Each structure stands twice: as structure tokens, then as C-alpha cells.
Amino acid sequence: QVQLAESGGGLVQAGGSLRLSCAASGRTFSRYAAMGWFRQAPGKEREFVAGNAWNAGTTLYADSVKGRFTISRDNAKTTVYLEMNNLKPEDTAVYYCAATSGLYNGNWPLASSRTYDNWGQGTQVTVSS
Fold first, then answer.
1. What is the rounded CA–CA span in Å between residue 125 and residue 4?
2. What is the spatial distance between Cα 128 and Cα 115, in angstroms, rounded to a whole number?
3. Cα 59–Cα 73–Cα 54 angle in degrees, nearest 5
4. CA distance 12 to 19
């Protein structure tokens, strides 16, 4: 199994910044896995935020966060970060880390939740106006 442990959520004023982290562990986790971030606001469906498949040379962002959020991986490729700048109240949501179990070969879109079969427990991000 793969375990994903998120951290870094919290309360911030509009215009502020937060950095989320997600550490992957487990015998079946591959450093060639795709990793991404999704979020779910109250009363709304879970939506894609950002994804990274470094071995495929692919990084993808939702239009709503382009230019404000940055996804990155550590050198071991087992931890994924989401740097969030210029936060807006509409960014308020529970943020979930996601990862594929093995090598990501590009057959599934990074922006689809069905691509990922491992999920973290979620971390709350609240942006006050």
C-alpha cells in the first residue's frame, strides 16, 4: 500500500501564502508515480488543482490557480509540495494529495481523479477576506 501524509494547511488572509506538503511512503510507491493536488469546497465536487509527472516532463495546473500556485517534488520524488501565493477566499477548501501506485505512463490525464489510486486524508485551507 501507499500512504500519503499531508501537512501545511491553515487559516490565512486573502493575499497571503501557504505551503502544503505531502509525503508518500509504502513498499509499492514508485518515485516514477504521478502526484497531484485536488480540492473540495463545501457543497462542491472535488476538483483538480495541480499535477506533476516528472518522468513524463509534465506539470499541469487548473486555470483558476495558474500563476499563483506552484507544484514541485523533492529530489527523492517522494514528497510533493504545493506553494500557494496570492490566496483568495475562493481557494478555501479541503486539499487532498493524490498519487498513482506505480509508474505513470501518460495513459491517463493528470487532471482526472480516476488517474490516481492513492489519496491523503486532506488538509483544510481557509482564506479569509
1. 18
2. 32
3. 45
4. 11
3-state secondary structure of 54: helix
Whole-angstrom distance, CA of residue 96 vs CA of residue 124: 9
Q: Using CA atoms, how far apart are residues 102 and 29, in angstroms rounded to an integer?
A: 6
Q: Which residue type does 6 have? A: E
Q: For each of the chain's 129 residues, which pLDDT tens digit applies?
A: 899 999 999 999 999 999 999 999 999 899 999 999 999 999 999 999 999 999 888 999 999 999 999 999 999 999 999 999 999 999 999 999 999 988 888 888 999 999 999 999 999 999 999
User: What is the per-residue pLDDT for 71?
Assistant: 98
Q: How many CB atoms lie within 10 A of CB 56?
A: 14
> Based on the number of CB atoms within 10 Å of its own CB, is 13 exposed (0-12), middle (13-18) or buried (19 or more)?
exposed
Determine the residue type at 2. V
| Whether the Cβ atoms of residue 88 and residue 129 lie closer than 8 Å to each other | no
Burial of residue 35 (number of CB atoms within 10 Å: 0-12, 13-18, 19+): buried
Give me the residue label for grid cell 502544503: 20
